[in-house]
Write a structure and sequence with these properties.
By secondary structure, the protein is an all-alpha fold. It has one domain. It contains 3 helices and no strands. Helix 1 packs across helix 2. The longest helix is centred in the last third of the chain and has 31 residues.
């Protein structure tokens, strides 16, 4: 995502950018990058967040990602059984 190109909705675009980075840090998602996409400092400024707050968000997000992983795996199994 190239949030810096957003003319309107800069805050929303920065949220999507940050979310993309956090998801990739955890090992989810597909990217053109071989590694985690770089976190743009401008996104942190727009969102008025610092790295300590990002770390806190990441650790609060972790249990939800596990829930999502198990949910999607179960959904995938059900879809395979129905085909």
């Amino acid at each position: 995502h190239e949030f810096e190109k957003a003319k309107e909705f800069k805050k929303e675009a920065a949220i999507v950018h940050l979310s993309d980075v956090l998801i990739h840090v955890r090992g989810y998602g597909i990217s053109l990058y071989r590694k985690v996409p770089p976190l743009q400092e401008k996104a942190l400024k727009i969102l008025k967040l610092n790295l300590f707050e990002i770390k806190d968000i990441f650790f609060k997000l972790e249990p939800r990602l596990y829930e999502l992983k198990f949910f999607t795996e179960e959904l995938k199994r059900e879809m395979e059984l129905n085909t």
